[in-house]
Amino acid sequence: MRKTVIAGNWKMNKNLSEAAELVNGLKAELAGKTLNVGVIVCPPYVNIESVAKLAEGTEIKVGAQNMYFEESGAYTGEISADMLKSVGAEYVILGHSERRTIFGENDEVINKKMKKALEAGLKPIFCIGETLEEREGGTMKEVIAKQVKGGLSGISEQELSEIIVAYEPVWAIGTGVTASPDQAQEVHAYIRGMLKEMYSEVAADNMTIQYGGSVKPGNAKELLGMPDIDGALVGGACLKADSFAGIITAV
Ligand code: 13P
């Protein structure tokens, strides 16, 4: 059976003391609760180590928001998979739409990062999603298919089991407009169908596919009640301990 996983993408928010406050707040919110979902927080690079230490011994796992695909060397400003592991990251978000649009990452670059992360023992949270123009223009499925095939190119079925897929419609990110449960379910089922064709029925059935885009405590339960929605990748609502905990406990 596949696992439900709620991940928080802090994006470029929280300095060192604010990061500690947020993770300590989350620990307090979740203390004593039996969780039937996985919980991941993805702070900015510079706070990964301190957040990982504060989360030690709890259910909270830590991830990064990006990494570079080379091992080491003259890549000023970049961070390697090994560095992330060495400070306590277990996951890494790859292919986020903000990386694709603001920083020009394409499927090929994302695929290289996926392979490097897997090789280093980091679990990718692999993001895909269409823009509003693509949805309205009728190319949504083509766009999703290209991103799935491009990002997973050359990745084995065994490696796939280490990956979480996150469907994040670009028009729903940070806009307050959430995809309806039916809209999200349609794409999730489409992605799972693709994985079945590319790999196997078992691999597709075991895949955790998160939804991301304006998830809040008030809409999480309905979204996660859909058969192919197995978690959430949360932006804005993960920046406060009570609202992130509200999403985790809503499911
Ligand atoms: P919001 O929850 O703020 O819409 O952000 C979603 C997101 O991009 C998570 O990666």
Short description, anyone?
By secondary structure, this protein is of the alpha/beta class.
How does this structure look, described?
The structure is a single chain. Helix 5 crosses helix 7. An 8-stranded parallel β-barrel has the order 1-2-3-4-5-6-7-8, surrounded by 6 helices. The mean pLDDT is about 95. It has 12 helices and 8 strands. Helices cover about 45% and strands about 15% of the residues. It is globular. It has one domain: TIM Barrel (Alpha-Beta Barrel). By secondary structure, it is of the alpha/beta class. The protein has helices spanning about 15-30, 50-55, 80-85, 95-100, 105-120, 130-135, 140-150, 155-160, 180-200, 200-205, 215-225, 240-250, and strands at about 5-10, 40, 60-65, 90-95, 125-130, 165, 210, 230-235. The longest helix has 18 residues, at about 180-200. The chain binds 1,3-dihydroxyacetonephosphate.
Sum up the structure in keywords.
single chain, alpha/beta, TIM Barrel, 8 strands, 15% strand, binds 1,3-dihydroxyacetonephosphate
Query: Which structural class best describes the helix and strand composition?
Result: alpha/beta
Percent of sequence in beta strands: 5-15%
Task: Order the strands across the largest sheet as they lie in space.
Answer: 1-2-3-4-5-6-7-8
Relative helix content: 40-55%
* Tally of DSSP helical segments: 12
Characterize the largest beta sheet: strand count, sense, and whether it forms a barrel: 8 strands, parallel, barrel
CATH architect. name: Alpha-Beta Barrel
Total beta strands: 8
Shape: globular
**Low-pLDDT sequence parts:** none
Report the CATH topology name.
Answer: TIM Barrel
Distance between the termini: 16 Å
Whole-number radius of gyration? 17 Å
Average pLDDT:
97
* Ligands present: 1,3-dihydroxyacetonephosphate
Question: Would you identify the CATH H-level superfamily?
Answer: Aldolase class I
